[in-house]
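INTERNAL AUDIT FORM
Audit reference: QA-55
Scope: verify that the stored structure record matches its stored sequence.
Auditor: D.O.
Record contents follow.
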Amino acid sequence: MSNSGVSHTTTNTAAQRTNLADWGKAITRGDRAALARAITLLESGHPPDHRTAQALLAHLRTHSKPKPTFRLAITGPAGVGKSTFIEALGQHLLAHPGRVAVLAIDPGALTQVDARGAILADKTRMTRLATHEDAFVRPATSAGASGGIAHATREVIELFEGAGYDWIIIETLGAGQAEDIASSLCDALLLLGQPGSGDGLQALKRGLNDRADFVLVNKADGDLLDYARQAAQDFQHSRTPEDRQRVWLVSSLTGEGCKDFSQALIAWLDARRQSGALDARRRRRLVPWLAWRLHQEIDQHIDAPALHAAAADLHDGREDLRAVLATLTSTLADALTQALAAGFDKSHPSAK
């Protein structure tokens, strides 16, 4: 009986490894359904799904050959035309040539999936990209996560890179949604503005103009062209002389400026890769992302009754601040340890 049990366990483990190997091969050879299924598991709040997805990522890290990639974060206020711009930019990146993957963060739950494995939503605004054999468009729910991105954004980027995509584009929830977190995962932050909307002034107030690697004034066409030029000047005035060169006028509608911008972007990123600045940025900016991710877990596991009880103890003088914090920290550490053992994202909102 004992030998039979060992054999059964060994067989199951071997089968799991075989399944992961087949799944990994399917992703690396461009199987969209396999890629979409892996992303769905990463976004799942169910511990078994999450463990399977993490095992798949570990397999890809071990068995797939990494290739150089570029990661872009694109932000801007609602109505500025982020999706339309990504569609236009994506065509030029595909012609570079390169393969393009887009992750569009959406505040709501998205569940409708098409036959090619991508969820239907922003795809309706990126029809050419969504139907191109070398592109993949995937909206993802933020599921209540702060920071303008989704909980599993970094892992999805890994999957895209394992699947052989050269360009990974993250469309954030919108300007003002903590772009620093999105840009911490990317090689360049692109800020989109539009003429006559005061975007430049709002960006200045948030310091976003200074943090953006490139500023693009979209809708620079027709009757809006003169207003777009004024908006570009407004952005330029607050930037250093070097940074002023990275303010562009573009029109997603006519395509004007998009090709020239894509060439400038590629040249800028290539130069940073050659100098080592790109890798240094990825290493440096992983720190704020880790801090953000830890805060997300803490927010998910903080116990409201325990907080209320601790506040009452502090208010009534039964405990001092040091003792209250020590108790809460210990309780939180236990909860996080149990969640990690169970599958890390057990309390993810989608599991509730």
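Auditor finding: record pair retrieved intact. The two ends are 40 Å apart (CA to CA).
Action required: none
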